[in-house]
From TrEMBL:
<dbReference type="GO" id="GO:0005777">
    <property type="term" value="C:peroxisome"/>
</dbReference>
<dbReference type="InterPro" id="IPR015424">
    <property type="entry name" value="PyrdxlP-dep_Trfase"/>
</dbReference>
<dbReference type="GO" id="GO:0019265">
    <property type="term" value="P:glycine biosynthetic process, by transamination of glyoxylate"/>
</dbReference>
<dbReference type="InterPro" id="IPR015422">
    <property type="entry name" value="PyrdxlP-dep_Trfase_small"/>
</dbReference>
<feature type="domain" description="Aminotransferase class V">
    <location>
        <begin position="27"/>
        <end position="346"/>
    </location>
</feature>
<dbReference type="InterPro" id="IPR024169">
    <property type="entry name" value="SP_NH2Trfase/AEP_transaminase"/>
</dbReference>
<dbReference type="GO" id="GO:0008453">
    <property type="term" value="F:alanine-glyoxylate transaminase activity"/>
</dbReference>
<feature type="modified residue" description="N6-(pyridoxal phosphate)lysine">
    <location>
        <position position="198"/>
    </location>
</feature>
<protein>
    <recommendedName>
        <fullName>alanine--glyoxylate transaminase</fullName>
        <ecNumber>2.6.1.44</ecNumber>
    </recommendedName>
</protein>
<dbReference type="InterPro" id="IPR015421">
    <property type="entry name" value="PyrdxlP-dep_Trfase_major"/>
</dbReference>
<dbReference type="GO" id="GO:0004760">
    <property type="term" value="F:L-serine-pyruvate transaminase activity"/>
</dbReference>
<keyword id="KW-0663">Pyridoxal phosphate</keyword>
<comment type="similarity">
    <text>Belongs to the class-V pyridoxal-phosphate-dependent aminotransferase family.</text>
</comment>
<dbReference type="Pfam" id="PF00266">
    <property type="entry name" value="Aminotran_5"/>
</dbReference>
<keyword id="KW-0808">Transferase</keyword>
<feature type="binding site">
    <location>
        <position position="355"/>
    </location>
    <ligand>
        <name>substrate</name>
    </ligand>
</feature>
<keyword id="KW-0032">Aminotransferase</keyword>
């Protein structure tokens, strides 16, 4: 049984439910961020991230910096693109649009390809755009939590390498890392940014990313200084001072900005749990749970926002509400049954759907019944709202 106080199951697209051992790691006594004990834990954590991202290339560089997933956008926009350079953004919803806005904030010349609501931009359109002009970076949201749309990365990255090999392929993996297959080296990715509070299963507060050697060289070869201080990768990998992230991974004390020792301990525990089993097994479990959720939802006569099976995330499901049932009608009834879903946030359909997150321990821990309880609660709450399947 869980040692956590009784509480509604948090089944939104993140933060997610956390394992007891992860939360207990947060209770670690206070320690110096340059002390031998903490430095050893941080170094081990960075090495575990290489396993999670599936990279063995020594030129690849993991970063763990205090901040939210959004900080990953800033790392990309401030460091990899200089003002006036071109960025191609493949958007599948709210978070793709946000990445584009962040790139513009640092002076990038942004071209955005939008998928239809519940769909994704098509590869031929991307190829055409890459042939029309040179892009420094291409960004894609692996799972956009506003729509539950999954982007297919392997063929996308291969197409970029064929048409525009100099373009850096950057992935927003905030809602995909640790639940959707992602092979950094094999697929030739140049950057993946994520966060601690989703499928990785650690409380919010850490920006986690992996960058390729090509990306690090792009940072070193910039003609202009990045228009940021804290988010400057040069300051985390300075050429004339101790290289903070490399030193931590080598278990040597270093300093640029103070990390959160308690969150790093929690992340270390979460990563050890993840890597205790083959990643392929973890990905398959998320697929199985997702398939069960989506079958139950469609059997209820409801529509999924991501309409094509190949476009559907295995981390979450965005569900259109029946006509005459509104978000304020449904969510309180779910809460009364111990289940928390999220409302919609997509600008075109925000009032028409809800979002069900099923990742991390919710999906992989067989002792939990979060998904079964949520599906039963959804069926009962809809009935209370007067819904009958057509």
């Amino acid at each position: 049984m869980s040692s956590q106080p009784a509480h509604p199951a948090l089944l939104i697209p993140g933060p997610i439910e956390f394992d007891d051992a992860v939360l207990q790691s947060m209770g670690h006594y206070s320690e110096s961020h340059v002390g031998a004990g903490f430095v050893a834990t941080f170094g081990e954590t960075l090495s575990l991230l290489r396993l999670l991202f599936q990279t063995t290339n020594p030129a690849s560089q993991p970063f763990v910096i205090s901040g939210s997933g959004t900080l990953g956008w800033d790392l990309v926009a401030a460091n990899l693109v200089e003002p006036g350079e071109n960025a191609l953004v493949l958007s599948t919803g709210y978070f793709g649009d946000g990445f584009a806005d962040c790139l513009r904030a640092y002076g990038a010349n942004v071209t955005k390809l939008d998928g239809p609501v519940g769909g994704r931009p098509q590869l031929p359109d991307m190829v055409t755009a890459l042939q029309e002009k040179k892009y420094k970076v291409l960004t894609v949201t692996h799972v956009d939590t506003s729509t539950g749309v999954l982007s297919e990365l392997k063929s996308l990255a291969a197409a970029v390498k064929k048409v525009s090999p100099e373009t850096l392929v950057i992935v927003d993996g905030v809602c995909s890392v640790a639940c959707e297959e992602l092979a950094f080296d094999e697929w030739g990715l140049d950057g993946v940014v994520t966060a601690s509070q989703k499928a990785i299963g650690c409380p919010a507060g850490l920006s986690i990313s992996m960058f390729s050697g090509r990306s690090i060289e792009a940072v070193k070869n910039r003609k202009t200084e990045p228009a940021t201080y804290f988010a400057s990768m040069r300051r985390w990998l300075p050429t004339n001072n101790p290289a903070v992230m490399q030193n931590y991974e080598a278990k040597k004390p270093s300093y640029f900005a103070t990390p959160s020792p308690q969150l790093i301990h929690a992340l270390n525990t979460a990563l050890k749990q993840i890597m205790a089993r083959p990643l392929a097994e973890r990905f398959q479990k998320h697929i199985e749970v997702s398939d069960r959720v989506k079958k139950t939802v469609t059997d209820l006569g409801l529509e999924i926002v991501a309409s094509k099976p190949e476009d559907q995330s295995h981390a979450m499901t965005a569900i259109y509400l029946p006509e005459k049932i509104a978000i304020p009608d449904l969510l309180p009834r779910l809460l009364n049954k111990g289940i928390i879903f999220a409302g919609g946030i997509h600008k075109e359909i925000g009032t028409k759907y809800v979002r069900f997150g099923h990742m991390g321990v919710t999906a992989v821990d067989p002792s939990r019944h979060d998904v079964d309880n949520a599906l039963k609660a959804l069926q009962d709450a809809l009935a209370e709202c007067g819904y009958k399947k057509a």
